[in-house]
Amino acid sequence: MTGVINLIRLPLLIFFLLACNPTGGKDQANQPATIRSEDEVFYLIFPRSFSDSNGDEIGDLNGVTEKLDYLQQLGVTSIIMTPLYPSIYYHNYFTDNFAGIDEEFGSMDDYLHMVREIHRRGMKFYMDTEVQYATKE
Fold first, then answer.
1. pLDDT of amino acid 49
2. Domains in the chain, ordered, with CATH?
3. SS3 content of the chain, % helix, strand, coil (to 5)
4. d(CA 99, CA 35)
5. Which residue has the higher pLDDT, 100 or 43?
6. What is the distance between the alpha carbons of residues 40 and 46, in angstroms, rounded to a whole number?
């Protein structure tokens, strides 16, 4: 039960930290936004079926990395990726390990390399994290 309570507390803590005013009370109303979502081209990747780099018929992180130039040519500026956590479910939403990478997708080094390559191209990376879909299995 304490695990469930901690899963609820963590997103709330993150929300409140992000909601804090980082300007110390200075008015930002007259300052232009530096990032506008309407200027972004988002591409959602379900890694299991996106691109397979090793011939095992399962998409993986190296497959995503190999396709970054193609995505950039399409005009993609931001990538949203569905969960990569280890899970017994094909969609990887139900997990009990929010710190790991499903071995079918690759390693933590593959993940870090992919994120570096995304940022090297000036693109943004967002990881879909659904903490309400945790499992005790």
1. 83
2. 40-137 (3.30.750.90)
3. 40, 10, 50
4. 28
5. 43
6. 19
